[in-house]
Amino acid sequence: MSVAVSIDPDRIGFDPARLARIDEHFGRYVDDGRLAGWQIVVTRRGEIAHSSTYGLRDREAGAPVESDTLWRIYSMTKPITSVAAMMLWEEGRFELNDPISRWLPEFADVRVYDKGSVLKPYTVPAVEPIRVWHLLTHTSGLTYGFAQTSVVDGLYRAAGFDLGVPAGADLAAASAGLAQLPLLFQPGSSWNYGVSTDVLGRLVEVVSGQRLDEFFTERILRPLGMTDTRWWVDEPDAKRLAALYAPHPATGQAVRADGVGRAALAEPSWFSGGGGLVSTAADYHRFTQFLLRGGELDGVRLLAPRTLRFMTRNHLPDGRDLASFHPEGFAETVLDGIGFGLGFAVVLDPVPARVPSSVGEFYWGGLASTAFWVDPVEEVTALLFTQLMPSSTYPLRSQLRQLVYSALID
Q1: CA angle 110, 111, 112 (to 5 degrees)
Q2: How many helical (H) and strand (E) elements, i.e. helices and strands, does the chain have?
Q3: Domains of the chain by range and CATH?
Q4: What pairs with residue 399 in β-bridges?
Q5: Which GO terms describe its molecular function (predicted)?
Q6: DSSP letter string over 237-264?
Q7: φ/ψ (deg, to 5) at 301
């Protein structure tokens, strides 16, 4: 599959000279050593207006970014897991208000952190069960150990839930272990980025009767033609995998992070619906076109248009944005003027964040600075791939929006 430019940009409202600013701007990140390399794709009305690569997928090996480079997409796995869940919802297999303990009994009697320390936490019973919609919206009270912003995060790390799960645990064991840890808050009372989508992946397994990787392959990846998307990279394709980098704390220069990066080269013990996939620009382009087209691509329909529109509305209580419904913590997005739907961040008002976009645009990103968005109003999609962890290092996503929307002139 290819992500080559398919139309003259000016035929679909883009100024080619302004689109060229994208490469000039992001090229500076590579030239000064902050990034090793990147790949960017911008489309409108289903046509590719801009597609470019720059720099190296593996700087130490001198290997360039190419059209078929494999990227760890981390949390860009979450929208795919959310689609999987909503496919089962469309089959009537569950309702969004159903308690997840109906299928995952380990979550029947969860408790909520109240006060105390990692060594001596005090908890209270949950007054509301975790419901399916809580997992889809990150309002479950589950968190991430690596966030390091709360006592509960510390309890996660002590139990082996940091960037991964305890050694050898599969998804069923991981879900059972997470259910033994206290929630950060009462379900539905706040928003916090965490392992909700991993638990959602386990829910998909139990409801469907298939392992998550099998469900993905049979029901989503193969039907959409996403044949390069996988959970790990075998030896024949290992050279296509971009190296993972992190900023040097003193210089800001990108330095290899093989301790984390090499995990993508081995079959995992668990299939992380929250962050486990490796993909290509061509494959994820197909996923964004499926989203833009309302749940269908090339004659294959996985979701109804109304379902996708429902998923990309703001589901936070009282129509609030993340800034007013989120304790301090890590997130793959700015918070002001941004709501959250069933698996996606949703733009409510672009002005508070001071970043151009359309009301109703939906998106997400990954830990290694990858990102995508879908703008149904302008019929624009955009993809950014690089491998710098964490994603908060540089404002790559907001800068890409700034450059894309300033190139749109019709």
Answers
A1: 130
A2: 11, 16
A3: 9-69+229-406 (3.40.710.10), 83-212 (3.40.710.10)
A4: none
A5: hydrolase activity
A6: GGGGBPPPEEE-TTT--EEE-HHHHGGG
A7: -110, 125
Distance CA 139, CA 284 (A): 26
For residue 144, what are its two tokens? Answer: 């991430």
DSSP label at 182? P
Q: How many CB atoms neighbour CB 99 within 10 A?
A: 17
The predicted pLDDT at position 147 comes to 82
Strand partners, 309: none
Q: Classify strands 37-44 and 47-58 as parallel, antiparallel or unpaired.
A: antiparallel
Strand partners, 374: 362, 381
What is the spatial distance between Cα 319 and Cα 316, in angstroms, rounded to a whole number?
6
Please give the Cα distance from 271 to 285 (Å, whole number). 22
Query: Which residues are designated catalytic?
Result: 75
Q: Which residues of 287-299 are buried (b: 16+ CB within 10 A; e: fewer)?
A: bbbbbbbbbbbee
Compute how many other C-beta atoms are within 10 angstroms of the C-beta atom of residue 409.
11
Strands 345-347 and 362-365: antiparallel
Specify which residues 42 forms β-bridges with.
Answer: 50, 382
pLDDT for 327: 64
- Could you read off the pLDDT of 40-51 as tens digits, one per residue? 999 999 999 999
Over residues 66-109, the pLDDT tens digits come to: 999 999 999 999 999 999 999 999 999 999 999 999 999 999 99
Tally of CA atoms within 13 A in the half-sphere of 309 that contains its CB:
5
